[in-house]
């Protein structure tokens, strides 16, 4: 164990019954756990059969087991696995058969119930419901959900009924049934207390209440390693309180602090400490960068998400030219929707990328599909599928029988002509259908951005969204964010055809991601998705109000700050932070997480969005050059020769101006 630092060594040799090792990012917690097992087996002569090691993923368990076999080649190897794997074994020993519900069945049950209440059901909404069902089971906290409790209760009831009727369990059932078995049967509890003498838990901050209860029930030696500053899974029932209240939960307890961050360069460690120190629900601790070299940290304030993506693409190309791998770089964001601008830029620049959430495609959202259908129908008025998608969005009193008549017609003509000849269509509807036919055709004569605005206003799709939000109790602001992101995605295209071609290209690229194997690629992920990972270069994007922290999570500000901290501490050498002036066409202030740190003094601040000499395009006055920016006043010289002054905030908030980006 000569390779351990003094803090790691202290943790490995701790003698208390209950040990909490508080391990900051990059502290070598896996090394500590492996050496603790080695210490128990070789120095304290504990038999391997009495030791269990709990991790939070099967992959982590396999990795740890493999590494331990390299260190210790004799005797019985301890159990390495997840809580769920352990509970499965406990139940299997005391039950004839355990059958787990398949994820596709879980999805189908929730989809079926939601479809009765919500017109369009996304995979993300289903995931959200399943997470809430899990949280309801494993947490005593009040459940906060984004839909009516009536709809959620129907989902919960259908899900539980499906399982009970078929004798199926989910992972939460495994936990609850195993713990209930131990509580109710003292003979079985005694057996496991004699068998499991030593429990080591990795990522202890991710434990839920049921898992914590199990550890207390066994009531033997526990060695828990975690970091309350990295507790970011409250939506799964995890809470930093399991670490904060460790001494209350476990008798004979001892805390050991690991102090060295072996991952990140010194100034990155200092910035991360600057961020997290504002949280109250944490241990005050010393974190020291082992490597005292200074990394590169930049805080950039680009004009909008498009410029942000282009800046990052150019940096990645430069890094590649210097001999670095694409996989050295990660782009981190708060929500999957933000990946859209980077996917666009990387496809355009032919930069290979990998989405950690492989299933996500922004253009698959029902609002995007509706808007795409309107646009596509304008250039292909024979398209019955697109007609079916949009004809009653908003509601136009077109009956199901009339729609059926169009869909089953063998005629190859304009869908609106077919509609007007369907039996049962009233004469008073004819004029409306003629107008709609004309309006749809008119879209193809407009610029792309004007066509989208026409759909939203003149064809009243915005009104449809408001009605949809009210009817199905969906957050209207979230739906309008999708609209704004769609409009942003269209900004760089002039015609409907080129935009639709781009969307097809995105779909094709995302479908091919899974078949590309281990090709060297830039990583695109939410900050949740990269916990436990590290990269030479980390770019954290859209660090602005309402995004980081997210507007729907303001009541849990400390967890939002922990999430940002996790993002920062993935960086080894270089950390790039971005706070665009404008997101989805709206002026944004930098995140409070930037404001309450010393980042401004520690970072190289560049790219303030717009500067003197930049070429711009104004919606009404055309192309011009920025002459001067003083506070909120911007002076522009237009190609026609006119000089004009504007409020910069007004231009950005109303999406009246865009920067012309010259690609290298």
TrEMBL record:
Binding site for ATP: 23-30
GO cellular component: cytosol; DNA helicase complex
Residue stretches making up the UvrD-like helicase C-terminal domain: 266-532
Source organism per UniProt: Clostridium perfringens
PROSITE patterns to which the protein is assigned, alphabetical: UVRD_HELICASE_ATP_BIND, UVRD_HELICASE_CTER
Keyword hit for ATP-binding: yes
GO biological process, any: recombinational repair
Keywords: ATP-binding, DNA-binding, Helicase, Hydrolase, Isomerase, Nucleotide-binding
Catalysis: reaction(s): Couples ATP hydrolysis with the unwinding of duplex DNA by translocating in the 3'-5' direction; ATP + H2O = ADP + phosphate + H(+)
Domain UvrD-like helicase ATP-binding: residue ranges: 2-265
UniProt family annotation: Belongs to the helicase family. UvrD subfamily.
EC number of this enzyme: 5.6.2.4
This protein's name: DNA 3'-5' helicase
Keyword ATP-binding: yes
Domain of life of the organism encoding this protein: Bacteria
Gene Ontology molecular functions: 3'-5' DNA helicase activity; ATP binding; DNA binding; hydrolase activity
